[in-house]
Specification:
By secondary structure, this protein is of the alpha/beta class. The chain has a single domain (22-256), classed as Rossmann fold. It contains ten helices and seven strands. It has helices spanning 2-15, 38-41, 61-69, 84-89, 113-122, 125-141, 143-157, 184-208, 216-219, 246-262; strands at 31-36, 49-50, 56-57, 73-76, 101-105, 162-166, 211-213. The strands form two sheets. The protein has a five-stranded parallel beta sheet. A two-stranded antiparallel sheet has the order 2-3. Strand 2 and strand 3 (56-57) form a beta hairpin.
């Protein structure tokens, strides 16, 4: 009975575009450090939050994983608004030679995530498309070196750790069922920016010897304008806008991470 089960698991991994990782026999032996930005800190879940402006949520996938696996140690260093520089200048201090597992989502803020969304919300289609294209140029030309520096720092501090790099979802279902909000032209442009970011991040993670988890497949059908959305649209408090809600963390990111760590 075990071989068919393994086949089903392998098919599931292929369906969500995940790379297989081996795992230690005992998750309780893990020394886990969660790095990254607001998509890892859990901003968007409605809280409760800790860490001041870092907005670390009890509903974020790192905390959920730690709760369910009871690792030997867990350091939640991810911080809302973080860029690669923030990871290099402060978050990597949470790593050590004894760290066995690291997760990270990073790069969206470097690429101007907030400014892209602001431009697309307040301006017409042309301005939105142009701003997205600027972001994509940055992602392709400048971000790779920043990711390389960040990943190298992680390897230097925790050379024996397994590192899982988690990507970002597409924001919109296009065409969508939303009767108000951004046009389909803007939605498609924003999605193209997410695609560019995923492609570059996957390449640099592979070059570093890390595992990249492509969130886009598992998120399909749960974008803004889908009936079962895992992502906030414009909401209050405004900083929670365009971030995964609790279902996005528990139903999207957490299962994707579990699949990446559990399959063998």
């Amino acid at each position: 009975m075990r071989r068919p089960f393994r086949v089903l698991l392998s098919l599931a991994a292929t369906a969500v575009g995940l790379t297989v990782l081996s795992v230690p026999a005992n998750a309780a032996a893990e020394n886990y450090v969660a790095l990254g930005d607001s998509y890892s800190s859990g901003l968007g879940t409605g809280g409760p939050y800790s860490g001041g402006n870092c907005k670390r949520s009890t509903g974020a996938y790192p905390q959920l994983w730690a709760n369910s696996h009871s690792p030997a140690s867990f350091s939640f260093a991810a911080c809302s608004g973080a860029t690669t520089s923030d990871v290099l200048n402060s978050q990597v201090n949470s790593l050590s030679a004894s760290t066995t597992l690291v997760t990270i989502s990073i790069g969206g803020n470097d690429a101007g995530f907030v400014d892209v969304i602001t431009t697309c919300t307040l301006n017409g289609d042309s301005a939105c498309v142009n701003r997205v294209e600027q972001g994509k140029t940055f992602v392709r030309d400048t971000l790779p070196a920043r990711l390389d520096n960040t990943y190298n720092a992680i390897k230097q501090r925790s050379p024996s750790a397994r590192v899982v790099v988690l990507g970002y979802p597409r924001f919109y279902k296009v065409p969508g069922s939303c009767s108000v909000g951004l046009s389909d032209t803007k939605r498609a442009a924003i999605n193209s920016g997410a695609d560019a970011l995923a492609e570059v991040t996957a390449q640099r993670a592979a070059a570093a010897g890390f595992r990249f988890v492509d969130i886009r497949p598992i998120w399909t059908g749960h974008e803004i304008c889908a009936s079962d959305r895992w992502l906030n649209s414009l909401t209050w408090p405004v900083d929670e806008s365009y971030h995964p809600n609790r279902n996005g963390q528990s139903g999207g990111y957490l299962p994707a991470l579990n699949a990446a760590l559990s399959l063998s």
